[in-house]
Amino acid sequence: MKHTGLIDLEKVTEAAFQKEYNTLRPLLEAEARVQQQLLRLDAQVKQTHQDSTSAEGYRVTGTDVLWNGWEASTRRQLNMELARLRAQKLSAMQALRTAFGRKQAVRNLLVARKESLKRAQNRKMHTY
After folding, report:
1. CATH number of the domain enclosing 112
2. How many CB atoms lie within 10 A of CB 100?
3. In whole angstroms, what is the distance from residue 37 CA to residue 101 CA?
């Protein structure tokens, strides 16, 4: 393959890699947001347990049952969202790995081509 063809191919593989990376980045950000929401929920649960031991009316009115139901529902929803995002992330990471491998292969071809041209020039200079 000609050198200019490899350079063009390098640009194409770089663009494909960037496209896959830009697909993955929002998934990583969304995953981090959901994980942060789960951490906040854990903190709320901990705080509620501490507060409920000192508030007798909390259990008498049934508020504890409502709170536990809301907490379980919210946790389930967040965990399902996290699982969905992680499945999408795995797929996007595989596509990114493929794009990265292609990008590296073309880069290696370019380096090998440059070294080959340099060796050919050195041989040409030494034969005269």
Report:
1. 1.10.287
2. 15
3. 35
Extract the runs of DSSP E, i.e. beta strands, from 22-80: none
Helices assigned H by DSSP within the chain: 3-54, 57-60, 63-127
Query: What's the number of domains the chain is made of?
Result: 1
Domain carrying residue 120: 3-127
Contact assessment for residue 24 and residue 68, using Cβ atoms and an 8 Å cutoff: no
Joined together, the tokens standing for residue 90 give 């795995």
**Using one digit for the tens of pLDDT, what is the confidence trace for 9-51?**
999 999 999 999 999 999 999 999 999 999 999 999 998 878 7
Q: Any idea how long the chain is?
A: 128
Cα 10 to Cα 4, 5, 15, 17, 51, distances in angstroms: 10, 9, 9, 10, 61
Please state the pTM of the whole predicted model: 0.73
